[in-house]
Amino acid sequence: MKDKPSSNQPVVDKLYYVSRIGALLSVVLMLFPGINPSRICGYINKNMSLFTSGIAYSELVKECERAFTKGWIQESSFQLLFASSLIVCIGIALLAVCACMSLGNIKMKKAGNFFGMAGGVVEILGLTGIKAAYNQVAATSKPDKVLPVFQSNGYNFFLVLAVIGLVIAVVAQLLLWKTESEERFEMDSKYKLFLMILPFLAAAFVFSYLPLWGWRYAFFDYTSGSTLSMDKFVGFKWFTILLENAATRADILRVLRNTLAMSGLGIATSWVAMAFAIFLSEIKCGPVRRFVQTFTTIPNFISWVLVYALALAIFSTDGFVSSIFTQMGVWTEGQNLLMDPNHTWLKMLAWGMWKGVGWSAIIYIAGISGIDQQLYEAATVDGAGRFQKMWNITVPGLIPTYMVLLLMSIAGVLSNGMEQYLVFKNAINADSITVLDLYVYELGIGSGAIPLSTVVGMVKSLVSVALLFLANRISKTLRGESII
Amino acid sequence: MEKNQIDKKKKNHYNESNTFRLSKGDIVFNIINYTFYIVFTISCIFPFYYLFINTISDNELVRKGQVNFFPQGFSISNYLSLLQAKEVGQAFLVSAGRTLIGTALMVMASAFVGYLVTKQQMWHRRFWYRFLIITMYFNAGLIPWYLNMSMLGLTNTFMAYIIPGIVAPYNIILVKTYIESIPAELEESALMDGASYTVIFWKLIWPLSKPILATIAIFGAVGHWNSFQDSLILMQGAPELYTLQHRLYLYLNQASNIAAMMNSGSSALSETLQSSLLNTKVIKYTISMVSIIPILMVYPFMQKYFEKGIMMGAVKG
Question: Cα(B76)–Cα(B86) distance, rounded to whole angstroms?
Answer without folding.
Answer: 18
